[in-house]
Design goal:
About 85% of the residues lie in helices and about 0% in strands. By secondary structure, it is mostly helical. The protein has a single domain, classed as Formate dehydrogenase/DMSO reductase domain (Formate dehydrogenase/DMSO reductase fold). Helix 1 packs across helix 7, helix 7 packs antiparallel against helix 13 and helix 11 packs antiparallel against helix 13.
Length: about 300
Amino acid sequence: MVFGWYIIAYLFAAGAGSGAFFVGFSTCLWDVARQSPASERAAASVQTAFYSAPALCLFAVLLLMLDLGNPNRILPLVLNPFSSVIGVGAWLLALFIVLSVALAIASLGARPVPRPLFLLLGVPALLCAVGIMSYTGVLLSSLVSIDFWHTPWLVALFVASSLTAGTAVVVLGAVLQGTPTALRNLSGPWKAFFVLTLIEAVLLVVFMAVQATGPQSARDGVQLLVAGGMAPTFWGAVVVAGFVAPWTVHLAKRLVGPSAALVISSAGVLVGAFALRYCIVGAGLYSPLVLSFVAPGL
């Protein structure tokens, strides 16, 4: 596997898609378990998750296939799913796509989806989504030869980032849906949005602090992001676009308007989530030769 743009986009799409499903299904599960006017409003606000999640994960599979290129490299993943981390991830994605697409089709034919069918398809898909969110971090952290990635904090960071990006996908989908009902019902995801970005920011600080006291190559990765060639991307896209801008807009929602605030925050989080994976991959592969391929111009 070459850690180029295909893999960076693959990690982003798989994380955002699985995160969107987790947010959407968990919200609807609350409505199934304890139906109330509040739970019904919340469930109505996340319906786009059931279409955007499988679409993003299908895109992730396409990116993986493009990265692998040769069909002879794809076949072993299909036949021996437990032979590698990426094989497990590929099967998780495949199973998730089948279940989530089936659930999306069921929702088109019956509203609401019968509870037994909703749980039969949704619970296994939810477990796959959790596995995919974790897998996007495990794929990197399992490579013991790259010190900057080899820490469980990376897995925690990627799970938090997937949930944040997934919430952004759900919120953006509701805004683009354009119905007044969907916009009015976004108060729950909007609050979760703010909390999740705070958790992700804390985990990013912890990850960077741990790696700053690790082996020399891990410290070099931190230096590259904080004050080296990748610093403009890290500070500008990850920190400012991914955290500062959404927080600012969240606090100034009345000044910019509800719809504009939702779009700006969601777009900023998605830019930050993609840039985070770009920075993590680039900083791990910090040698000039590899960086010239992964991040041209750095």
